[in-house]
Amino acid sequence: MDWLDALILGIVQGLAEYLPISSSGHLEIFREILGLELSGADALQFDVVLHVATVLSTIVVLWKEFLPLCKSFFTIARDDNFFYVCKILLSCIPVAIVGLCFKDFVEQFFGGGLFVVGICLLVTACLLSFAYFFRNPAREKKEHIKGHDITWFDAFVIGCAQAIAVLPGLSRSGTTIATGLLLGDKRDKIAQFSFFMVIIPILGEALLGVKDIISGEGMGESVGTMPLLIGFFASFLVGCAACKWMIEIVKKGKLVWFAVYCLAVGLLCILW
User: Fold this and answer.
1) Is residue 169 within 8 Å of 24, Cβ to Cβ?
2) If we measure between CA atoms, which residue out of 89, 110, 107 comes closest to residue 98?
3) What is the rounded CA–CA span in Å between residue 166 and residue 224?
4) I need a labelling partner for 86 at 20 to 30 A (CA). Which of 190, 204, 221, 240 fits?
């Protein structure tokens, strides 16, 4: 992998992490287009580095909301922010189980072609479409449906959706946001919750990656230090812009257009 490949993949990650089109799936697609051959472990670890960059972009963009959450949680303030963080922690339990118990199983889907990506993109398209038509904006306005704040049950169900969305092509943001909309959560609340809930799993995966590198089980020769740095900064900068954009898109309820996109790209992946 050279610096240009890393730059392209970083830009793709920065956009696709927040837009409901699957960042892992699009990284697989562009690896195929660029002719990059990475092992499942190398591909997954490179993806984690790019995901860490977008996690940092989330913190930067939403820092006004993020800092009060940290303050309340670490001071055990027992206010709404404290319980909000507790809901985020609850949502992380399913993906933690998947990461700890089924990591080897998940790795085999990375770097292995586009058929699985295509199928998962079609599933993403179905989820986004169902969420859009189930919570039709015209019906909401007519029936005065405004949605509710995220409950403990909602947090756990959304967490289960995130655990399933580890597969390449199944959009994490799309799956979690669509699940929240189907549960009746407020649009702006579920978008922000979706972006915050990924912070802990990604940082946890990054720490495990550092442990592997220290123990000599890190990346192979397919990925070098310079491509990692270039991909990281590209993903971070583009992610900052995409995060703001996605929150506005969710508020306006325009997710159905991404369903059309995922349907088209999914079919192309299968035909490829």
Assistant:
1) yes
2) 107
3) 25
4) 240
Residues 6+ apart with CB under 8 A from 198: 51, 55, 58, 162, 172
Paired tokens of 5: 């490949």
- CB-CB contact of 231 with 13 (8 Å): yes
CA separation, residue 59 to residues 72, 106, 147, 206, 256 (Å): 16, 27, 26, 16, 27
The first and second tokens of residue 244, run together, are 């703001």
Q: Which residues pair with 148 in a beta bridge?
A: 185
Give the up-direction half-sphere exposure of residue 246: CA atoms within 13 A in the CB hemisphere: 29
Give the pTM.
0.82
Cα 268-232-63 angle, rounded to 5 deg? 105
Q: How far apart are CA 186 and CA 267, in angstroms?
A: 32
Rounded CA Rg of the chain: 18
Is the confidence at residue 227, as pLDDT, over 60? yes
Spatial separation of the C-alpha atoms in residues 108 and 116, rounded to whole Å: 11
Percent of the chain with pLDDT over 90: 31
pLDDT of residue 85 exceeding 80, the answer is yes
Helix 40-61 crosses helix 23-34 at what angle (to 10 degrees)? 130
Please tell me which of 78-87, 93-102, 184-193 the model is most confident about, judged by mean pLDDT. Answer: 78-87
Model confidence band, residue 49 (pLDDT cutoffs 50, 70, 90): confident
pLDDT tens across 100-129, in order? Answer: 888 777 777 766 678 889 999 999 999 888
- Residue 27 in contact with residue 12, Cβ under 8 Å? yes
In this prediction, residue 111 carries a pLDDT of: 61
- Cβ 93 vs Cβ 143: under 8 Å: no
Q: Is 185 helix (H, G, I), strand (E, B) or coil?
A: strand
